[in-house]
């Protein structure tokens, strides 16, 4: 769809190495949350896709649309209640994300 994609992850996260490899494979910039302030990141994005993260609240506060992506454990779905409270669009698969992008 020719979107400019940026990844932001915590280097302490268990998935960092996997995401780093995907970043290299698809030539997608990756930012380490440990070294980048959230405001600097949000100033570069037009849409945020994330799971259970308080970053979604930062994006909402900055009027950046948020899509909640979750295909994990149902017990921690919308762990913080952000999706329900703000009525965020939900994606559970790559196909869901594609359909959301096509509606934008």
What does this structure look like?
With 104 residues, the chain is α/β, with parallel strands linked by helices. Helix content is 36%, strand content 14%. The protein is built from 5 helices and 5 strands, in the order βαβαβαβαβα. It has helices at residues 16-25, 38-42, 55-61, 82-86, 94-103; strands at residues 7-9, 30-32, 48-50, 66-69, 90-91. The chain has a 3-stranded parallel β-sheet with strand order 3-4-5. A two-stranded parallel sheet has the order 1-2. β1, α1 (16-25) and β2 form a beta-alpha-beta unit. The longest helix has 10 residues, at 16-25.
Brief overview:
Helix content is 36%, strand content 14%.
Strand content: 5-15%
Uncertain regions spanning at least 5 consecutive residues: none
Largest sheet: 3 strands, parallel
Count, helices: 5
> End-to-end span in angstroms?
11 Å
Number of strands: 5
Arrangement of strands in the largest sheet: 3-4-5
Gross geometry = globular
Helical proportion, percent range: 25-40%
């Amino acid at each position: 769809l020719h979107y400019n994609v940026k990844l932001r992850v915590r280097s302490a996260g268990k998935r960092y190495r996997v995401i780093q490899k995907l970043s290299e494979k698809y030539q997608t910039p990756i930012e380490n949350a440990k070294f980048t302030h959230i405001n600097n990141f949000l100033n570069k994005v037009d849409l945020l896709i994330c799971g259970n993260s308080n970053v979604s609240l930062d994006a909402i506060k900055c009027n950046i649309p948020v899509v909640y992506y979750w295909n994990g454990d149902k017990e921690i779905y919308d762990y913080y209640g952000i999706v329900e409270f703000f009525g965020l669009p939900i994606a559970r698969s790559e196909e869901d994300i594609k359909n959301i992008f096509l509606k934008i």
